[in-house]
Design a protein that fits this description.
Number of strands: 3
Number of domains: 2
CATH topology of the largest domain: hpI Integrase, Chain A
Number of helices: 13
CATH superfamily of the largest domain: Intergrase catalytic core
Helix content: 55-70%
Distance between the termini: 60 Å
CATH architecture of the largest domain: Orthogonal Bundle
Largest sheet: 3 strands, antiparallel
Shape: globular
Order of helices and strands: HHHHHHHEEEHHHHHH
Length: 295
């Protein structure tokens, strides 16, 4: 697609989007381009109309793509066409009259407090490097609510032991400081001691590494989390993001301020954080029904 590479460079260097986000935008634009070409439609953005975009939406829905994924892909097009207008390549907005399919409102899935306590208090992770690393990963995700990409991007220098905190680099390279418990800080020291034995390369600054001393990759984190959560919960999704949901929900249930949760999670606005209040409200409704004499 014409102008695609320039657009991606804009996202990377001017908007400072993460490599993961830039990759997603690139894939979405490529899929749109393939659809246009395969249906004898114009591939040049200057010739694309709302009719072509609506046809893509219908095609995606017909193939069973979830409305949430459709929204994400069209959001990519919105940013792309907004950039084209900004660069005076286009004057019109082909998305202006495009109506998106309705999304089902789903509550964030989370793990119960008792299940996490059982995992961390009663499970034997092992005392070797792999076991201690895996436990530290589970705790880092649950104690801080950071994203998987933020976890794999952590460097040893991001840990401030005197200040018992960690510096996290989030989306668009925005940084935030998250406090750590004294007990978890001690666990990190133990992990770093074993890490030093595994990592012979002094130039490797990544906090979490493989058994061969390389930077830990995303899929490995997913597998680690899924393996251990499977021991204590039957929820279908057992990804690192579930621990992020769990962190926020448990904090709110115990009285944490919503604005504080927003800062911990690195959300740009409060509306993204408010989804967790629904879980808290569901718990309050259950308590109300159990406790009120006329409920």
């Amino acid at each position: 697609m014409v102008h695609k590479e320039s657009f991606l460079q804009y996202l990377k260097f001017e908007k400072r989007y993460s490599p993961h986000t830039v990759r997603s935008y690139s894939n979405d634009l490529e899929q749109f381009s393939v659809f246009l070409s395969g249906n004898s439609m114009p591939d040049d953005p200057c010739d694309i109309s709302s009719h072509h975009i609506r046809a893509w939406i219908v095609s995606m829905m017909d193939t069973g793509i979830a409305p949430s994924s459709v929204h994400r892909k069209i959001s990519c097009l919105r940013v792309f066409f907004r950039w084209l207008r900004k660069e005076n390549i286009l004057t019109n907005d082909p998305l202006e009259k495009v109506v998106l399919p309705k999304q089902k409102k789903t509550l964030p899935v989370f793990v119960r407090e008792e299940a996490l306590e059982n995992l961390l208090d009663n499970n034997n992770f092992g005392e070797d490097f792999t076991g201690l690393r895996n436990r530290t990963i589970i705790e880092m995700l649950y104690f801080t609510g950071i994203r998987r990409a933020e976890l794999t991007g952590l460097q040893v220098s991001d840990i401030d032991f005197p200040g018992t905190s960690v510096k996290v680099t989030g989306k668009r390279n925005k940084q935030r400081i998250i406090p750590l418990t004294a007990q978890f800080a001690e666990r990190l020291k133990e992990y770093l001691h074993l890490r030093q034995r595994v990592c012979n390369n002094d130039d490797n600054a990544w906090l979490f590494i493989t058994e061969k001393g390389n930077k830990l990759y995303d899929k490995a984190v997913y597998n680690i989390v899924r393996t251990y959560l499977s021991m204590v919960t039957t929820i279908e999704k057992k990804s690192p993001h579930i621990l992020r949901h769990t962190f926020a929900t448990h904090m709110l249930n115990r009285g944490a301020d919503l604005n504080a949760i927003k800062e911990f999670l690195g959300h740009a606005n409060l509306s993204a954080t408010q989804v967790y209040t629904h879980n808290t409200f569901e718990k309050l409704k259950k308590i109300y029904k159990q406790a009120h004499p006329r409920a």
